[in-house]
Automatic annotation (TrEMBL):
Species of the source: Erythrobacter ramosus
Highest taxon of source: Bacteria
A molecular-function term among this protein's GO annotations: guanosine-3',5'-bis(diphosphate) 3'-diphosphatase activity
The keyword Transferase belongs to this UniProt entry's keyword annotation: yes
Domain ACT intervals: 624-696
Gene Ontology terms describing biological process: guanosine tetraphosphate metabolic process; nucleobase-containing small molecule interconversion; response to starvation
Keyword Transferase: yes
Record-given protein name: GTP pyrophosphokinase rsh
The protein's enzyme class: transferase
EC number: 2.7.6.5
Catalytic reaction list: GTP + ATP = guanosine 3'-diphosphate 5'-triphosphate + AMP
Alphabetized Pfam families for the sequence: ACT_4 (PF13291), HD_4 (PF13328), RelA_AH_RIS (PF19296), RelA_SpoT (PF04607), TGS (PF02824)
SUPFAM superfamilies to which the protein is assigned, alphabetical: ACT-like, HD-domain/PDEase-like, Nucleotidyltransferase, TGS-like
Residue ranges of every copy of the TGS domain listed in the record: 382-443
Amino acid sequence: MLRQYELVEKVLEYDPDADEAMLNRAYVYTVQKHGTQKRASGDPYFSHPVEVAGLMTDLKLDMATIITALLHDTVEDTLATIEDIEAHFGPEVARLVDGVTKLSKIEAMPENERAAENLRKFLLAMSEDIRVLLVKLADRLHNMRTLHFIKSPEKRQRIARETMDIYAPLAERVGMYEYMHEMQALAFCELEPEAHATIANRLDQLRSQDGGQVDAIALTMKQRLAEAGLKVEVYGREKHPFSIWHKMAERHVSFEQVTDIMAFRVLTESEGDCYQALGILHTTWQFLPGRFKDYISTPKSNGYRSLHTSLMYENSMRVEVQIRTREMHRTNEFGLAAHWAYKQGDRPDGEVGWLRDLIEIVDASHDAEELLEHTRMAIYQDRIFAFTPKGALFQLPKGATAVDFAFAVHTNLGMQTAGVKINGRHMPLRTPLANGDVVEIIKNPHASPQLSWLSFVVTGKARAAIRRAVRMKERAEVAEIGSKLFDEIAARVPARIGKKAIRAAVERLGMEEPDDLMYAIGAAKIADREVMEALVPGCTAGIEEDEHWERRESAISIRGLTPGVAFDLAPCCHPVPGDRIVGIRRKGETVLVHAIDCLMLASGVDSDWIDLAWGNQSSGATGQLSVTIYDRLGTLAEMAGIFAQNKANIITLMQAHIDHPFVTYDVEVEVQDVGHLNRIVSALRASDAVAQAERQ
């Protein structure tokens, strides 16, 4: 553990103007507040914040960040408050400490909700000042270094999994690869101890058989580059056990088949030297096609810059080589933190694009599971590059589609996506993008995200925005049904109901807006009697609890509402416009629309029935038919032709059974209304190829 004077000296080395008295005060404050608290290792608890502060000094961060590291656990684990911190160390430190501190109220939540709420608060604080992230990453790194002292295997596993899923990818996203590699190595050792031990043993064997080969290869490369007049540093290393394990799992290969276990770094004086060194290496040893990446001309979103190539060295040994300048190397190892040496006077930028995307995800996520799911999607980084028609570059995860691209450009563009051209050709929205694709989004101001998009989008930002839009649409349409039912309820009370009475009723029911009431009525979350009593207190006195309420004579129109959102069409009878319909309303569920003659209606005898109508000029639904054709050559094509002649699109066609010489198919078909469906049935029955056609 760093002693007080050692910590102060480390800060003064790179910042001679630092407030030494405040640093000393912060050190003493954390020691006093944590007092006799102990860590699982038996060390005094204050050793942890002191070590975290030491990690921050290694990055040469400003004094406010160092003090935040010293104090980051005081509010969570001692009697200190944010107000105390502000009084002693100022508003900037208090704001940073609050960003890192976990909310005390989340301790009573279930594990997944607690993790999600903690992550939500952390991301929001990080968006205002990314130094919050730097302290949190150092905090997690030191906790991982001492993870083995925790006795509970379940707790160790949980912390290691959270580190692997959240914090290591976050370290990668800000380019702190040194932190990322160590977190992954420590988490991997805990999560997959057998795999870690096996790979470590194999590496030990290779090392014992190596005979200094890594150093020899590095020296040969350095000599070859020096002969060309380049001043470089070259050093080799083995890949980390986790990196090897990940490659084995990704490529489905054994340890022996991972041929690029050794990797070499070439550090040059300038950017031009990087490309010159690349040319020399490629002309000296065989280059492996498809393994070259230029992250200098096209940096990763976290600022990472380097040339990557793979060479076939002597004796058919394959090695990876990374070529970069010394400045690039420092940035690549410590990422955004490398830019913030105090002497440069720089301040963190919380408005980097990927971080704004995370904040949108926080706003759009509905619950704990969604937040964790969307965030994991957003921070993992196996990327492809795609361009707008004007040449703007966007990085996306592998497997991303045109819809993901649209939301990456701008949320509003994603919301209005109606089609796409990829490399000038119209393509389906679900088409996965490839590196270098030029993507033109066709938008329509009247378009809206579809629930089906969730089956193919891969980015957290797109998924969160789509779910939010679908929820808002569902709420609006359910509230529209509720407002029509409200008119019916209001007609029963012995008073004329105006806006003032509605506002009073909303207040009595503990709601905020009239829309909340309409939604509750539409979703059957509130009984008619409760609404009447809220509108006119006492008006239901003397009325029996189970007394049947007469519905109004005019049916409620569902025209303009979206199937699958405000209501669902019953799969048992597949009603289409023109059928007489009723709705079954159950608490917390969407209205289920049945044809009036559906046999399944008997199962809803205890439910709330609503008299529904399609509304004028309603059109478009799915009809379901059972068609029996003769089992001979060409009859299936003739049946399909009848659908085409009647301008009906087949959605699904499934063989139900064969009873030679007949074959029966279940067919789902798009129709305009019941008249359209009846014409199709008549045409099928008139065909010599069809033995029987019935609507199901």
